[in-house]
Design a protein that fits this description.
Layout (H helix, E strand, L loop, with lengths): L7 H8 L3 H9 L7 E3 L2 E3 L4 H16 L9
Antiparallel strand pairs: 1-2
Length: about 70
C-alpha cells in the first residue's frame, strides 16, 4: 500500500486477529469501509486499536456482560 493505509492482512496483524474476523466485522458494519488509496483499498492504522476494542467488547458480551443489543 502507498501512504499510511493498511491492507486487510496488515490491519489483522496489527489488531492481533484473523482476517476472517475483520471481514465479519466489516460485513456487520463494525469496521468502516476501506478507503481508496490510488487504485487500492486500505484502512487507517488507528482502526487496529478500534478493532481490538470491538473484539474485547464482543468477548465481554458473550461472557455474560451487556448484550450488544442493549449497548
Amino acid at each position: 500500500m502507498t501512504g499510511a493505509l493498511l491492507d486487510l492482512a496488515e490491519l489483522a496483524a496489527r489488531a492481533e486477529m484473523s482476517v476472517e474476523r475483520l471481514r465479519y466485522y466489516a460485513d456487520v458494519g463494525l469496521l468502516p469501509p476501506a478507503r481508496l488509496d490510488g487504485d487500492r483499498l486500505g484502512y487507517a492504522p488507528a482502526e487496529a486499536r478500534t478493532m481490538r476494542l470491538v473484539a474485547g467488547w464482543t468477548s465481554f458480551s458473550r461472557s455474560g456482560g451487556v448484550p450488544l443489543s442493549d449497548a
